[in-house]
């Protein structure tokens, strides 16, 4: 499940920027994590807007400066209400829905110079562009983002397509996975007809890559996912160039009411991918993602115990998220980093110089342990392990009561799953301990690394090299702790080499007290036999250090199985779509029966003709509705502005919400009154109730406009004025009580936020009670 509501596909996730168009420090970065480990995450946030130092009202009176995405989100809520009011009422609800509104916003956003797509999404909201999009809109399906380009030669983090442009494609490599969102403006439900397809742009792009797909059986509500798994064909090991083409997917939704014509649209996305000759083995790093457990399946505690602001390890543990500093350092050093999203059974070790495990929390099957031992000892694979603390005493103290789930949360492991790592390292004569949580600094060769809440090494083989941490707080001992503070070790193991470090915080940007990218690069150089600089001048162990009795054991009071992909589950031995084609255990199952229940049997249906008939039908309905409403438009008040729903006459006038009796579906400004009681209708104007429904549905809220639920949907009211400068007031459910006025895209958007607990005034709308505020 999504880790936050903003991660959901049908929700518009909003990031914050300042007035210089710089991404605010408090604005969350993408990607989404629910696709991990088999994917790369979808684009989030969707858009950005102003969220730093925005002027707003204080409950006690006066103004104050407000910052946060809780400020940026209401700005977009206000923009949505303004955009909804621009759609002619006669056919507004034929084309307006959560997907079409999101399409208008993300496909017209203005890209900022500098921030990558994982920080700015589609860019800064552009109300004028979105209004133009809706003015020409007919319901259809689209893909967000609409383009992906990985051909940047250097791909700095200021490149829009970072981090995808940081990884080139080549033969025998793991498939590159790109996760995107399908927006279905045609209806609440839809299905993918047939299979998605990659259409090469020219002959040079033909027969170079294979593109396989995973996708939603049913698009609901309004959206679905599409995963693209791109691999270079094995016979293209010497190919260098750009592959261009279009990904196309046909979406079918049920017919309009009273029609038998199915809604059909082809959504497309441009791909522009860089392909290079296959690099030498020693330059290829395989980063294991499968054995990380991303939040929220279980309570995996934070890696840095002293970082009390974060209770959980919930930053993704991915090279595109909190490990991106280390990822960039490796790529910039000439390494080619690929991602392992399936088990150790799903890669050919002869293709790679090293396998990297960072902060692994998952268990390992017996087959995985045996295969990896063979890969290292017989095939010469280098193994690099960055572990973390594991101490049962500390884990027990970290138990807490979660108010949301009303249950006790107990850590299922420590910062890393040290007992499982010891199973993996046993064939190499290495074991990590659980008696001490280590802090300090370690020097290895000419490099150094901070140690923050790490674990120590309690067993290491003869001939290897070990290194101890130093500093005033080098070791925090517990009962049974060795206190030796040995945190790093390097050794040969058969034809391969193994490097172990007891702490991963130095490559984790979440709470790092210093980075160790130089140490990481040097360790990879050591295990691939490219350089022995790390052990130059060091003395090798003359005998085995410790024994297997030094191993730590798993906690007996924590049931790990419900959160594991390997314990008692077939996934631990199966290779998914993220694995090379020749090693895949299965293709994703399709639920054809479910699709048939949504749109019926599509066999024998000419989808091209059906799409043309649907377009003619919807255009005809819009034209008919427009003609039928012309007489009503002529009667509109001459001073009314687009989107007017309540009077706002001059600076001294006041605005009130709709009067009693306003009902869902009321047209124009029916039921809305200004302070003097005059009805202000607007040409093409949206009623407060109508726009409330639009804002609610786009935000994933309740469309009802009555009742006092925990997340009430509150309408908007705008004032009369010229069509080019019509003011609009939007209400964002949730947040703090304030009034914001911003100049965006040439129009003024006024956004009112409220907190029900602090506002006791009542108003009846459609028979129900509603909390409101009066603006003067």
| Average pLDDT taken over every residue | 79
- β-sheet strand percentage: 15-25%
- The percentage helix is 10-25%
Give, in spatial order, the strands making up the sheet with the most strands: 14-13-15-16-26-25-23
Number of strands: 31
| Envelope shape | globular
Largest sheet: 7 strands, mixed
Rg is 29 Å
Question: Structural class of the helices, strands and pairings?
Answer: alpha+beta
Distance between the termini: 44 Å
The unreliable regions are 472-483, 635-776
Number of helices: 14
Which structural traits does this protein have?
776 residues, alpha+beta, four-stranded antiparallel sheet, 14 helices, 31 strands, globular
Describe the structure.
With 776 residues, this protein is an alpha+beta fold. It contains 14 helices and 31 strands. The strands form 10 sheets. Strands 14-13-15-16-26-25-23 form a 7-stranded mixed beta sheet. It is globular, with a radius of gyration of 29 Å. The two termini are 44 Å apart.
In short:
The chain is α+β, with helices and mostly antiparallel strands. Helices cover 18% and strands 24% of the residues. The protein contains 14 helices and 31 strands.
